[in-house]
Amino acid sequence: MDRGGCQMSGGGSGGRIEPNQPEMITLEDLESFSEDQLSDSGNGSLEEEAETMEEDDERLLRYWQDVARGHQVEVSPDMAEPIQQLTTNNQGQSQREPVPFSLLARKEKCGQLLYEKRTYEKGHWACIMMREDTYEQSICYGFMRIMKYICQQNSLGDYLGMTLPIITVVRTDENHSVISRDVTVAYFLPTEHQAQPPRPTDSEILIEIWPATTVYTRAFTGATNEVTIIDQINTMAELLDSPGLCFNDSFIIAGYTNPAHSNRANEIWFLERP
């Protein structure tokens, strides 16, 4: 990994393994919530439908605000439109595109999956470096700025489409006991925008080409904060047969659920040295 920037570095058929997920509110749940509300407005006048849609947008915004406060994060009113765009149909563009990868190997014990080895393809990522007081604040504020880029604050002025996972790059000391306050939040550009990535309006969002990368990955659920991340890093290091093959101070948290929620579906990634 490039220590001075956002990039991953390292080292068929692509896809991703769905982590075992308990009941949680995901981006897809929010989408269903919004579309159900909008479907009730089809029998009124255009004015009534507009009012109903505004009320739905306000409900979504209030929901995000209420959840985010539990992480000491404030969701500003200007997030209403990106939230609405990300959680409604967007003219058929609501499908989440998986970041493409090839599965190389799986390590199991007593029928339980311990971790997977994958190769992720070279591609364009939009990334932003955050330095908030806590990791939770950094990923939430970083994700909201990436959301604005996805939802029209780009040179096309259009919704770009959502990909999963959203990843955060974290750095630790050699003993894996302290996480740096510098956190990178990154979004893989959808296939249709890989050749010519739209330019961000936000000058702090960078578009970078990340090389193909081999990672060792393990799923986990729940909140991601300094304590849980350190715990997951140490657990993964114990499971790996040869942890020395990977970088010892740079790791990735892959998130498949809105980072404002406490019970998230995540993966920890160890990056193989080139």
Automatic annotation (TrEMBL):
InterPro entries cross-referenced by the UniProt entry: Reg_factor_effector_dom_sf (IPR011256), SOUL_heme-bd (IPR006917)
Database matches in SUPFAM superfamilies: Probable bacterial effector-binding domain
Region feature Disordered, mapped onto this chain: 1-56
A GO MF term: heme binding
One Pfam family linked to the record: SOUL
Acidic residues: compositionally biased ranges: 26-38, 46-56
Family, per entry: Belongs to the HEBP family.
Name by which UniProt lists this protein: Heme-binding protein soul3
Species of the source: Takifugu rubripes
